[in-house]
Amino acid sequence: MSRPAPVVFSPDYECDIGRHVFPTQKFRLVRDTLLADGALDARDLIPAAPAPRADLLLVHTPEYLDDLEHLRWTHRTRMSELPLSPAIVHAYVLAAGGTTRAAAEALVHGVGVHLGGGFHHAFADLASGFCYINDLAVAIRVQQRDGRVRRAAVVDCDLHQGNGTAHVFRDDPEVFTFSIHQEHLYPIKEQSDLDIGLDNGVGDEEFNRRLAAALPRVWEHRPELVLYQAGADPYEDDQLGALRLTIEGLKTRDALVLEGCATRGIPVVVTLGGGYARQVADTVRIHRNTCALALALAARGATEPRRDTP
Ligand SMILES: [Zn+2]
Q: How far apart, in whole angstroms, are the C-alpha atoms of residue 214 and residue 211?
């Protein structure tokens, strides 16, 4: 049995965003569920720390960060579908620190789990959707800056396209961006290195068949780190989407990505992404399953980084 994978979390991810479809309590509930069913030991929880401005500047422009810091409603910030408050900005800066920490842990343990993050709609100089800071991009850029990795990939299985991530890395051959999502839906699409736009009504079989067929393109990139955006919103009872995955189908999706990384010795980071099920408990269950699988793989020692393997 290898060392358990650390799990990054902050209670401050739960904040007041007014009446909203985004349940910010889900982060706490996922943690509580993992602790209650024994998938997570409280001793393995690591508190997220705010990302330093120097780290955020690897992705975001100073003008945009100034807007956020001073809570200014400008053309850069008002594309968000969230209010702008000190607690909300803090939650996003924390989430960027959280994914960065989980990535560093993944490079040691093979798996890093962040009970947060996945804010893939944020651009370098523009908020978008429910995203102010692109934690996925910040985490990759920090590992590159610090010389821990050169090549990375983002596997984005959220209902929505990872438009911000695609745009941030659009001219970077070292970072492969892959997004599988509902085509006819927010956002206006950017071009990832690989996009699969699914028709409304697609369910478990087609989603997972097309995901399995696409993942070899990710492995061919020979990433030294994979950021997994494991959005819960392809779920059949999601309020925002029209994909029709079941909870079991989403477990198969997670296994394709996480076991795919594990068998190749590629360090992988779980981030939660979206999730707007009519019943918040369903969103929590889906995220819990993703994290529990990642932790089980880590406990099996299935994910020890092996740098020499394509
Ligand atoms: Zn989403």
A: 5
Looking at residue 292, what DSSP letter applies?
H
Ligand 1: centre distance to CA 202 (Å): 16
Q: Please, what is the average pLDDT of the chain?
A: 95
Per-residue tokens: 199: 């028709």
Which pLDDT score, from 0 to 100, does residue 305 have?
62
Type of residue at 158: D
Span 220-237, average pLDDT: 98
What pLDDT, on a 0 to 100 scale, did the predictor assign at position 300? 85
On the question of pLDDT at 3 being above 90, the answer is no
CB-based burial label for 212 (10 Å; 0-12, 13-18, 19+): middle
| d(CA 118, ligand 1 centre) in Å | 9
Count of other CB atoms within 10 angstroms of residue 264: 17
Cβ-contact 115, 291 below 8 angstroms: yes
